[in-house]
Amino acid sequence: MRETGDLGEIKRVKVELEGESDYLPDSEYFIGIAEKFFRYAGVEVVDKDYDAVLRVYVTLEDDEKVSGKIFFISDVVRFSYQFRSETFITAMTKIILKIFGIQPLKKVLKRESRDLRAGVAKALGKIGDARAVDALIEALKDEDSYVRKSVAWSLGKIRDARAVDALIEALKDMDSDVRKKAIWALGEIGDARAVDKLVKMLNDKDSDVRKSVVEALGKIKDTRDVIPLIKLLNDKNKYIRKKAIWALGEIGDARAVDKLVKMLNDKDSDVRKSVVEALGKIKDTRAVDALIEALKDEDRNVRKNVAKALGEIGDARAVDALIEALGDTYSDVRSSVAEALDEIGWEPRNDEERVLYYIAKGDWDECVKMGGVAVEFLIERLKDKNSAVRIGVAKALGEIGDARAVDALIEALKDKDSAVRIRVAWPLEEIVTWALVGISPWSLEEIVTWALGEMVTWALGEIAKKDLGVVENLIKVLRDEDSYVRGRIAKVLGNLGWEPKSEEERVLYYIAKGDWDECVKMGGVAVEFLIERLKDKDSDVRRSAAEALGKIGDGRAVDALIEVLKDEDSVIRIRVAEALGKIGDKRAVDALIEALKDQNRYVRESIIRTLGKIGDAKAIDTLIRMLKGVDDKVGELVKNAIIEIAKKDLVAIDKLVKALKDNDSEIRKKVARTLGEIGDKRAVDALIEALRDSEGIVRFEARKALVNILRMDFGYDYEKWKWWLSG
To answer: Which of 292, 228, 234, 244 is nearest to 266 (CA)?
Structure first.
């Protein structure tokens, strides 16, 4: 296969374009670009009698990018060059450079449009071929600043020292963007010849130019830069100060130490962090005392970098301060401190230092090896801000198996990282699978919290296996106010094969597990415990407790359920109303009538159904008033409730008969209809009187009701109905 530029056999090329699906690339644009490139290589773009084929595939997602290849069709010359996901100009630049060398591209850089010249310049920078340097140096004189900027960038990417003089000259460019790219390029090349010119530009009016200069000087790392850079530490622009600090760190000259140490008190934590990093790179022991003091900085990132810097300097004077910092609040700081102590060559002198060191490194296996000595220190870290640390600590405590950790582990179950916790009983395999495929309904925070719960559960189980006295403590926790904690403890006990010894333990266990069906099976024994859970902080528990009490049907729960009719959760209010309906105790009626003022429609509907089930005529007057101005669904519910009450309480009929004389015709109409459906003959006299109502619709419903009750029809003839009634 031919690999070099001397391929004179190519004189005629065919360009073939392809696109995804129905997408058709702009053929004129691509062929036009190809023709320009090939023209300077002495090649003609044709449709037939060609020597080679350039096949271009344009992607639908980004029509700036193309893939494809150019290949000979001759049997004599074997040549193929492929390209993947590049701009067409970059692809063509690579093709021409590969096959025909740099000469055709020099012509493009001189003769074509601004965009094409800039595009080729950038492409040459991406390719990084040193053959392009002379052509790019010449192009730095281009009349267009956009092209010059692209050229400067490319020279920086190629990093060839031949470009230094031209780039130094470009520092005088009228366009600040060109100057910035030239500065950047000189920094990338790293040639000390540029230092004097760059230092002079530290006074440029454009702050972005000054930042670029400082960065370039930091990359060149010439000690002549130190004094000018130290002066820049007083610059008003925070970002220039940070760049100067960085550059001094890169150069590593000790002359900067005194000034940098003073800046450890800067108000800006980002500046302090940069200073610490620079002092770590300079590695001058004069900074040690100031850095030790900076280990108390209020910013964790500063403290973390201070530890790293002290490790890089390696002065043993920092050891005591670093040991103290092993107890830092943040795990990333502690980890950095441990690494610094390693760099200094420190070894722990006692068990306390050894445990703190292993915890800082997250070396839980070593903590476990230390046994009981490590327990108190590990317990302290169960409150760590980093959930990964808490999980590691829980695992270590479980493996050690010391009962002193039990209370702290139980408290750790109350971890509040996530407002919404994954249910205790959710299968591990399902959670992991969902997370791996990226469609988990839980956030990473929730999954981590769940993982901590799983680890604590396991740890408590391991401790309980070694100390049976722990089980009695766990049983007491079944009464904990936190449902999540109760659930975890129930899981521990279940894993241990524990069996309740009394009905009280059994009920508490089932409640903790959320096994409400078993609670219902226990009947009256469970009532008092379920009543207690009606006040639970967990809305799911309150709801389930209400449902269970309804199924048990014990009147002892009525007063507690009435109180929960005011619960903030509308679903719970619905379940409470349903439970009261199942219990059927008339003591709830007054509270249910009051609750008909609930703002939630579905709560009101549930209460209406419940009043019907209880069947107390005390609710009739309120329900009659609700017949007015409601939609058909609610009206039907109210009517059915009234009918249910009338079947159970005879007083209801008297109240309905009285309502036939209500001032509101809509109420009179619906009452007449309801009496007809009830079918009680005690209403006949009043319904006959309603045949003389002033409203036709009321008379119509009264006649229908009479027909339904008596199975005869005298129409609207009041006298005949009265005659029949008297006979």
So the answer is: 234
DSSP secondary structure string for all residues of 160-211: -GGGHHHHHHHTT-SSHHHHHHHHHHHHHHT-GGGHHHHHHGGG-S-HHHHH
Q: What is the second-level CATH architecture of the domain 1-101?
A: 2-Layer Sandwich (3.30)
Please choose, from the candidates 44, 51, 90, 42, the residue with its C-alpha nearest in 3D space to the C-alpha of residue 67: 90
- Alpha-carbon distance 592 to 597, whole Å? 9
For 186, 383, 409, 467, 472, the CA distances from 455, given in Å and listed in that order, are 55, 15, 10, 18, 21
CA distance 231 to 224: 13
Strands of 80-87's sheet, edge to edge? 44-45, 12-19, 52-58, 65-72, 80-87
In single-letter form, the type of residue at position 199 comes to: V
Residue 588 class from Cβ within 10 Å (0-12 exposed, 13-18 middle, 19+ buried)?
A: buried
Kindly tell me the burial class for residue 549, based on how many C-beta atoms sit within 10 Å of its own C-beta (0-12, 13-18, 19 or more). Answer: buried
Contact 87/116 with Cβ under 8 angstroms?
Answer: no
CATH topology of domain 352-489: 1.25.40
**The pTM is what?**
0.71
Domain ranges within the chain, ordered by starting residue: 1-101, 352-489
pLDDT, tens digit (0-9, with 9 covering 90-100), for 647-693: 998 899 999 999 999 999 999 999 999 999 999 999 999 999 999 99
Q: In this structure, is the dihedral angle defined by the CA atoms of residues 555, 559, 563 and 565, taken in order, positive or negative?
A: positive
Residue 421's pLDDT band, with cuts at 50, 70 and 90, is very low
For residue 429, pLDDT beyond 50 = no
3 state DSSP class of 52: strand
